[in-house]
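Input chain follows. Return structure tokens only.
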Amino acid sequence: MTQAESPAPDHPAPHRNRARFRWLLLSLAAGPTGWICQLVVNYGLSSYACYPGDTPRRQVPLPGWTGEHLLLVAVNLIALALAVAGLLVGLVLWRKAQAEKPGGAEQLLEVGEGPTRFLASCGMMASAAFGAAILFNTVSTLAAPVCWDLTH
């Protein structure tokens, strides 16, 4: 029997071609990337607006910085949209790979099968967790007054 005639071995992820690796990676990385960008950009914007040099700002900022609070909220909403996109991509991939191997999580973990479904579920959980963190930061940005309002 030649190699072309021999039956294919049973692969642990027979439906792996249904989920592209780049989409799995997007699902896994979207939430953390959005959260990191939100923290870094908001920290930089708010710290410069409130403390541009050696001393804190005591008057209303320059004309270009009057909408700084709206800019901070916009960055948060973009980061939240990125996390939601990662969650939705993970959900779509999880549904596609749901028929990968029969059984629940316990059976699949025991034999080490179903990696596509596992990665999709990890992407959903990561995006949901980091989306919640972004949402909490957004609420604090909306609730806390901007720095120059505290000095008046």
